[in-house]
Design brief:
The protein has 301 residues and is mostly helical. Helices cover 56% and strands 0% of the residues. The structure holds protoporphyrin IX containing FE.
């Protein structure tokens, strides 16, 4: 197997001597399989490649509370996973636009695993008790996950558009990208355009939907999915797409629900640091579905 990639030189203009299977094999033969450890100071390749030094310099608990490092690290892990999920779902949109369905489905395979990982990460956060959280909660001030721009971009990408959610990022370097995401077509917009190109005609008002506002459930969209589910083998491509979309939606709902129950266990009915009544607000947003017609069509006989 060969990888089609560039072996770029480092700052000294040197190319990596390990950048081919043959070179790695030759080294292992010569060292009898003993790993290499003689790197120049400050130049451990793994640390340089993934910028581990920078990454590990970003955790600064404000108290001595034993659970604060875990809270900060898990918040950062989730942010990284939001970013990765955004990368994967953006790729899905690009592939669907290009009618490359099989590759889009292959990419969903990765994105849904990221979502499962995001859900699992609640396990670690949930190990913290009320008493332990209260040891450092006041230090958060007004900080809340509600202000996560990566999360907001994901919600917009999935179609939960809300222009009021953009303003809070005005002073952040991410402002332009949040605003851009508001104006970009959502995954559902792209998926419905795909259906329309593949034998499931949709009306103009569905196809020319304003991307900056959320879609309202539309009878023509429901009817199109109903046709798909009534003849899966005839609409096989659309059927596979429907199931991939629904899995994405379901995993997002699950993420919200585990967040909700974890938060309920940790802070009860106390208000959130972001200004809401807390669990009551989280319960309401847990009802949200990105692709409502795909849920509705399941009630049909
Ligand atoms: C003890 C742990 C946590 C508590 C008590 C908590 C509580 C809350 C509350 C009450 C809200 C509603 C907004 C507010 O008033 O603040 C919220 C929103 C949110 N939280 Fe958490 N949270 C916790 C951990 C986390 C973690 C680790 C993340 C991951 C980054 C996270 C991500 C979010 C996001 C993205 C929202 C906005 C949801 C939306 O707009 O739909 N939370 N959280």
């Amino acid at each position: 197997m060969t990888a089609d990639r560039v072996n770029s030189p480092n700052e000294m203009g040197e190319r990596c001597p390990f950048a081919s299977g043959a070179a790695r094999g030759a080294y292992a033969d010569q060292s009898h399989g003993v790993p290499r450890v003689d790197f120049s100071p400050g130049d451990t390749p793994y640390v340089a490649y993934a910028q581990i030094g920078t990454l590990l310099s970003l955790q600064h608990p404000r108290t001595n509370a034993p659970t604060e490092p875990g809270f900060i690290i898990l918040s950062q892990v989730k942010e990284l996973l939001f970013k990765l999920l955004h990368i994967e779902l953006t790729a899905v949109c690009d592939l669907l636009r290009a009618d490359r369905l099989e590759e889009a489905l292959w990419t969903f395979r990765r994105s849904t695993r990221v979502q499962r990982y995001l859900i699992q990460a609640w396990d670690v956060v949930g190990a913290m008790t009320t008493v332990e959280f209260l040891e450092f909660r006041d230090e958060l001030g007004e900080a809340s996950g509600f202000q996560s721009f990566s999360y907001r971009k994901l919600e917009f990408l999935l179609g939960n558009k809300n222009a009021d959610r953009v303003a809070q990022h005005r002073n952040s370097p991410a402002y332009e990208s949040v605003l851009e995401q508001l104006h970009l077509p959502s995954l559902y917009d792209v998926a419905l355009a795909f259906l329309n190109r593949h034998g499931l005609d949709l009306p103009r008002e569905v196809l020319e939907h304003d991307p900056t506002v959320p879609r309202e459930p539309h009878p023509a969209v429901e009817a199109a999915w109903a046709r798909v589910y009534s003849q899966p083998s005839f609409f096989w491509d659309a059927y596979k797409l429907a199931e991939a979309l629904l899995e994405t939606d379901e995993l997002f709902v699950r993420w919200r629900q585990v967040h909700l129950v974890t938060v309920h266990r940790i802070i009860g009915d106390k208000p959130g640091t972001g200004g809401t009544y807390g669990v009551e607000w989280l319960r309401r947003i847990s009802e949200r579905r990105f692709f409502p017609e795909l849920w509705k069509v399941r009630s049909k006989e």
